[in-house]
Amino acid sequence: MSKIDKSRIAIMNIHYQYHPLHHFLDAMERHEIRNIDLWAGYPHFLVSEATYQDAVKLRKELERRGLNPICFTPKQGGYPLNIAADDPIIRQKSLDYLLKSVDIAAELDVPMLQLLPGWGYYGEEPEEARKRACEGIRRVADRAGYYGITAILEHLQIIESNLALTRFDLRKMLREVDSPHLKAVVDTCHMAVSGETLDEYFTDLGSDLVHVHFNESDQLPLGEGNLPLSSYMSELRQRNYDGYLSLEICSRKHYIDPDASLSISLRTMDNLLK
User: Organism's domain of life (predicted)?
Assistant: First the structure.
């Protein structure tokens, strides 16, 4: 049985997006959290406008603070980005954006790059959209592999995508992409919405499951929802999971006071780790 402790916890900065990045980095130092899952969106780091020098500057700032970026998570779920778009211009712009994200992740010396499946028109068969997504994801994953980076794909909820909603969809996309550099991440919130369990993910995805978003229902601060977090932690230990657990808070009312929200999650996590 694996030991999971604070050294395996990573915090994503997405719920600090109405504050400057240094506010989040200060909080990491204050809470003595070393690992960060770096969400790249405005105003923290805007991939589309970023330069090589911007990436170097950010890497040096993280090094100065002793922070360890374990994953680079470029904003990609909404307008105007969609790797599965039927419009070739939007699809190419989305691909270029993700390929640039790989280059930035390499400069930051980050081992993982988060990817999403995109979406096709609802009400239409998703097969062609999924083919377009897989073609683009393959190119991004292969570019990531060139730098020694693992691309990780997450399935979403029906309000976000119609291409990958379950572990079966995720496994199918991994097979269709067919890149050794693409693996899977499970988000416990999405997992619960689809009526699945961690045991099923480990059983069906095996060694392809390399990362966990340890999230609460509705992506609230840990302990404020209704998911069996203690059971999840026990399952991860029993499965000898040795990766990181990224904590995300995506409930927008908690963006107002992100420090308070983070403190709630960390208190809950401390109790789970005991």
Answer: Bacteria
- Cα dihedral across residues 200, 206, 208, 211: positive or negative: positive
pLDDT digits (tens, 9 = 90+) for 2-25: 789 999 999 999 999 999 999 999
Using a pLDDT cut of 90, give the percent of the chain over it: 97
Longest Cα–Cα distance in the chain? 51
- Does the global pTM surpass 0.85? yes
Q: Two tokens at 258?
A: 């992100």
Render pLDDT for 208-239 as a digit per residue (tens, 0 to 9): 999 999 999 999 999 999 999 999 999 999 99
Q: For 36, what's the count of Cα atoms within 13 Å in the CB-facing half-sphere?
A: 30
- Find, among 177, 89, 165, 105, the residue nearest to 134 by Cα: 177
Q: Which of 57, 44, 153, 17 is nearest to 98 (CA)?
A: 153
Do residues 137 and 151 make contact, with C-beta atoms less than 8 angstroms apart?
yes
Buried-state track 165-197, b at ≥16 Cβ within 10 A, e below 16? bbbebbbebbeebebebbbbbbbbbbbbbbebb
How far is residue 264's CA from residue 247's CA, in Å, rounded to a whole number?
A: 12
Mean pLDDT of all residues in 135-154 = 98
Collapsed DSSP state (helix, strand, coil) of residue 251: coil
**Distance from C-alpha of 200 to C-alpha of 205, rounded to nearest angstrom:** 8
| Helix 198-205 / helix 229-238 crossing angle, nearest 10 deg | 30
- List of domains in the chain: 6-273 (3.20.20.150)
3-class SS letters over 133-180: HHHHHHHHHHHHHHCCCEEEEECCCCCCCCCCCCHHHHHHHHHHHCCC
Distance in angstroms (rounded) separating the CA atoms of residues 241 and 263: 25
